[in-house]
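Run: sequence + nicotinamide-adenine-dinucleotide -> complex structure.
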Amino acid sequence: MANLPENRGVQPHAIVPEGVHLLRAGPSCHLDHSDNGYNMQPLDNTRIAVIGLGYVGLPLAVEFGKKYDVVGFDIRETRIHELRSGTDGTLEVSPDELSAASRLSYASELDALRNCTVFIVTVPTPIDSAKRPDLTPLVKASTSLGKVLKRGDVVVYESTVYPGCTEEVCVPLLERESGLKFNVDFFVGYSPERINPGDKKHRVTTIRKVTSGSTPEIAEFVDRLYGSIIVAGTHKASSLKVAEAAKVIENAQRDLNIALINDLAMLFNKLGIDTLEVLEAAGTKWNFLPFRPGLVGGHCISVDPYYLTHKAQQVGHHPDVILAGRRTNDGMGPYIANEVMRLMVRKGINPVGARILILGLAFKENCRTCAIRGWSTSSRRCATTMPRSMCTTRGWMLPRRTTST
Ligand SMILES: NC(=O)c1ccc[n+]([C@@H]2O[C@H](COP(=O)([O-])OP(=O)(O)OC[C@H]3O[C@@H](n4cnc5c(N)ncnc54)[C@H](O)[C@@H]3O)[C@@H](O)[C@H]2O)c1
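>> structure
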């Protein structure tokens, strides 16, 4: 909300988003004073832009688009055309759900964002070939947003990053491009996403959401904005860094738990013990966690731990445990390929010239894609380990599905 009339009389630092009115004002302030320093106004006039309409961005834009004016923005024009025609190729949102978002429009031109007051960034955060964070999409999105940012606007990041990334990488770009000052002219929030592609039970609105803001007032505003669509409720973290760290450790923890079971599965294989029978027996204890062995792929679990280990190494901490888990899980593709070849040879099947049927090839249940970050890392490895005959152009034989968020 840039320069709204109600803000006249409020001190210059008090440029706040629509819905948040600072009341700690000078003597000429015509607003009520209050102990907590601000007073929440209705959110109704908030105009939202969602930047990046993939697995995370589209379902979010749809939910907000039922209640607020929303522009869904993506640099891929084909994606915009597809959504305008009423279909979602990721299958996350049905045509009926798309049309229920009556206040959602789509755009690939930056100009369409000029009237928005809240910008939610949901662009990819992959890793490069050296497994370092590749912040290119985040940098490009922040640079673009800086060109349309106005006084009073709020930018909320949802992309998974390492603790500190929003303030260290994104905010300076927003400041540089807009010429505006952080926490004076514009504000930032961080609210990580926990959706699980293909999962029709855990949806955007039914998963509790962590929120945060660059000032206490903005944290409250961001929390209230998400709280207006998330029926499962929100958890307001004390800072952007806490919210960033919370997201990345959720996936690092899952990765490590699976790595332990993968390690055990390889050991039990050597010992001639059935892993699932062992897990079933151990699972009768009340606090034994029910993880299963398998490939770790997907957009998140095979990638996010590297964001954390990158930051850890930057500050001189060597994250031995996290990296060990990554090594184990990244090695499962070649391990399984070798095991398959060993079994084929034992059964007298020559892998050279063998024809293989792959059933249910996807990075996880009910998902259309397989060539995404975590998967492609494993598949490339696997493809180099297995004879050509065992690899198709679209994948390779899997003994069980990959594990993802
Ligand atoms: N997919 C998941 O299960 C999941 C779950 C939780 C969190 N996340 C995180 O959410 C973020 C987004 O993931 P996703 O799975 O939705 O990615 P995605 O690849 O499905 O979609 C990202 C979209 O952003 C668009 N994009 C890229 N650069 C852009 C730019 N500069 N401006 C505008 N649009 C741009 C792409 O065209 C694409 O449509 C990532 O940080 C990811 O780690 C993903």
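>> summary
Residues 240-271 form the longest helix (32 residues). Residues 269 and 349 are 21 Å apart (CA to CA).
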